[in-house]
Amino acid sequence: MRIAIVINSSWNVFNFRKNLIHALLERGDEVIAIAPEDEYSKKLVAMGCEFYPVPMNTTGVNPIRDLLLLFRLIRIYKKVKADVFLHYTIKPGIYGTLAAKLAGSAAVINNVSGLGTVFIQDNWVLSVAVQLYKHSFKFADHIFFQNPDDKKLFISLVNPEGPSTSVIPGSGIDHHRFFPKFNTNGHFTFLMVARILVEKGVKEYVEAARILKGKGLNVKFLLLGQIEKKHLRAISAATVQQWHDEKVIEYVGVTDKVEDWIARAHVVVLPSYREGLPKTLLEGAAMSRPLIASDVPGCNAVVHDGVTGLLCKERDVNSLADAMQRMMFFTDKERSAMGENARQHVITHFDDSFVVDEYLEKIDSYTSAETPKTHQLKEVFG
């Protein structure tokens, strides 16, 4: 079979879907990656994928640009002739679903990998997104969600008629790659790994660092992640550099070896406003690190308060600072127990083999059945 994976960046395909790609290739399927071109595109080709670049404005609502994306995807989809299209992230999900059904009768499996900024804010953008989802996702065959809260909220707002739905454990965690490894120094070290966006709680992390450093505690705060230049809710490079220069936090950029940075930290922190299922917490837990995160959907599926780490209030700097200080004052034995609990929890519930198996099962089930929605879609669009 020919399986197309469509995401908003080649980096995303390579870092989050690698094991699924390997599983598909090993059983003899052909894999097509469709995404904006970046330095990871060649790595996908080296893995054995066909690669088709597609320019994509991943943020904002611009009808002309989005219509252009739809036409680009239709053209590519007709060319690749895939049996199944796997869509991830918002725009590939919405416009890719329409393109797949207009281009032919391929099966469509979508992954709502976190509801993100759009669903956090109650404004016109949310209304537009809901309508786009309503009109597009009814032509999908299956929708994966990454936590039950996202599924419940999405269905209550969108109520897509037609596709089946289920919850999978995010993109899973490879606990053979992420295993207990320690390379910490004399400073007690916190690590936050995230895209540098407001909704990830980066500002709260920095302000909590100010509070703890103001108390004279011997502690280091690392920040690792991509600075998003074009995202509407991005934190500027100048602001991050200012924090770094002030020595409030140490910004360490981006890396393909995040496990090396987790090894240098005592605790992994993610004060996000909402998540699907955060990879950074799964990675930290798999390396036996206690965790600190906001008590919000996605995060609280990984962090069980007092067991695998500590939960803090969403968007509350003082609550975050308090949780971080409490974690510092725990004994090494108490933190070690939390870390061990965290690793066991993610191996039991979030191993990436579960995700791969779910995808393979769904791919096989939908390619063995006809997808009659194509004719219905063509009638809608004339």
From TrEMBL:
Domain called Glycosyltransferase subfamily 4-like N-terminal: residue spans: 3-147
UniProt-listed InterPro entries: Glyco_trans_4-like_N
A Pfam family recorded for this sequence: Glyco_trans_1_4
Organism of derivation: Imperialibacter roseus
Protein name: Glycosyltransferase family 4 protein
